[in-house]
Amino acid sequence: MTYPYFPQRWLITTPDLSGDPDVFPLIPGQLFVSQKSPTFPKTIVKQSVSGREVRAGLSSAPLWQFKVGYEFIRDRGPGQNDLQKLYAFFCSRQGQLGTFHYYDPTDNLVPDCPTGTGDGETTTFQFQRQVAPGTPYAFAEPVYVLNGAPTVRVNGVATTAFKVGTYGALVFESAPPIGAQITWSGSFLFLCRFSQDQIDPAQMCQGLWSVDGLTFQSWKP
User: Most Cβ neighbours (<10 Å): which of 23, 185, 200, 208?
Assistant: First the structure.
């Protein structure tokens, strides 16, 4: 019996992410992301006959929906077997069942983002990032996977007395003092799963295939 692949690393240090088994592969022929949509799942809306509403949200952070296409995928034997690589990555996750990390080349940097306030006792915080930082609309959400070692500051002073824990936990060796502002800078990846259990490449000619759309979404642990 085979089991789906679930990454166990929350700090990725592979220099260019190429060939990392936890990371969605970037292969020749891949087009730009054609869809990226934030979705708040399962919002409950109850409306009376008078039209008045009561709404309840079941999630404080969105799930991100992605779609990528492939203008061409090579399947020409050793060194040019990108289709087999995509098949293997998809099958190792067993479609929607397993998970992986996705590096979005247009959305992966965090510039000195607040991620907690010390109380003198708590040693574990969640890495967070802001969407549209520095604007009146800035929105914070958790970061579960880091790309490269982050820079962490406590009251503006950089520290190395921490580790990256499970699902992007920021774990200090000792609790930051009361009122201390905790910030970090660095890069991150999205924790994702496929949104489909089947992919349908089409053969263009001998050794070349294409895929109109491969969909996946961020996943909340």
Answer: 23
How far does Cα 136 stand from its chain's mean position?
24
Inter-CA distances, 168 with 4, 72, 130, Å: 21, 35, 15
For residue 88, the surrounding DSSP H or E stretch is: helix 82-92
Q: How many residues does the chain have?
A: 221
Closest CA to 101 of 199, 211, 5: 5
* 177 three-state secondary structure: coil
CA separation for the pair 190, 185 (Å, rounded): 16
CA distance 126 to 198: 34
Q: What angle do CA 53, 59, 65 make, to 5 degrees?
A: 110
Upper half-sphere CA count for residue 82 (Cβ side, 13 Å): 20
